[in-house]
Amino acid sequence: MQHRIIVLGAGYAGTFAAGYLARHLHPADFQVTVVNAEPDFVERFRLHQVAAGQTLKHRPLAKIFAGTGVEVKIARVTAVDADRKSVTVDGGCGLERLEYDTLVYALGSTAAHHDVPGVGEHAHHITSRAAAVRLSERLDAMGGKGTVLVVGGNLTAIEGATELAESHPDLKVVLTTSGELGGWLAPKSRAHLLRAFDRLGIEVHEHTRIARVEPNGAIAADGSFHAADATVWAAGFAVHPIAAASGLAVEPNGQITVDRQMRSVSHPGVYAAGDAAFVIGENGRPLPMSCASAGFTSQQATAAIIGDLTGGKVKRTGLVYVGNHISLGRRDGILQVVDGDVRSRYAVTGRTAARVKELVLKTATWGVANPTAKLPARSHHMAVDAEVRRTEAVPA
User: Fold this and answer.
1) Is 138 left (phi over 0), alpha (psi -120 to 50) or beta?
2) Cα separation of 100 and 176, whole Å?
3) Which homologous superfamily is 111-233 in?
4) How do beta strands 146-151 and 256-257 pair?
5) Domain covering 3-108+240-322+380-393: architecture
6) Which residue in 45, 173, 182, 391 has the fewest CB atoms around it within 10 Å?
7) pLDDT of 1
8) Per-residue pLDDT, 343
9) Distance of CA 85 to CAs 78, 99, 153, Å?
10) Where in the chain is the domain with CATH 3.50.50.60?
11) Nearest alpha-carbon partner for 122 in 236, 209, 49, 219
């Protein structure tokens, strides 16, 4: 009987994991199934471009995994029962229960509402393709004019605000942030960021915490009202509540607690990758929720799975966060290198940074979208003592 590996989520972490496992595990011993709510691989890196009305290349999962042996199941995950080793999904024809032997949890994250009233009812976000498309449609309905309020000061907020302002020059784009815009950047990078906002005509309100979102704008904690025809909520990420309800050990924010090899500390056979995983990086701090972290955590998770199931040595992947790479529209950007957990003075700005980021995005997307590019002989068979090895790997 084949060992059943289910990968939940087909973002960067999940798509890479499914393809890598299929390349390295013998199909006679293993069956890899990827479950995703959408039929396509979505470049989350570029969702701010979708929101601005740009069209991205269509990448069907069925085409990506054709010839790999990976089974693609288009369904929404509704529950995970880690004790019974099962997943409940909804594929549009009622609920279905899937059983697994090994689970890769890579469901990612969504927008964090921070319990602010009105966010769910009146604000847009850009953490999924469907949400980005809805925002694009709203801007079209506005005729490319009016006021868009972007709430947040992180990378998503910055990239969203600049992309919207560049793509829709007749829009008035306003950004509010509870802190200082780009305050974590080195002086050179922050100065370039502020110049880009000035060039694009983006109005910035720093140290402004939004307390409520209304249909026609938002109310700040100080009582000031920020009128908007569309509000974009980009104030951080939150993981889906499925993990916390699954029986898995999780952090207070709902991320799955894993060891250095991305194994759940509470359940043998469950591995997490991407935004859903809480792991300490090489600098002694938790890896941030980011697409960059998805690559390293999925590499480490797949290495652990292959080692645990086939009896081999688990390869160690560096869990690092190398820096911030920020798009400021299509022709401008910032590459801010990070030294450990301290910002570095080294930075690249302008067109060069934009070109480097575009190259990084294309390379990363090509890698996950072409899992058979370097298909080796899949000679790794199931180890006889695999379950014993995995149980011993989980701390008591």
Assistant:
1) alpha
2) 45
3) FAD/NAD(P)-binding domain (3.50.50.60)
4) unpaired
5) 3-Layer(bba) Sandwich (3.50)
6) 391
7) 86
8) 60
9) 14, 6, 40
10) 3-108+240-322+380-393, 111-233
11) 219
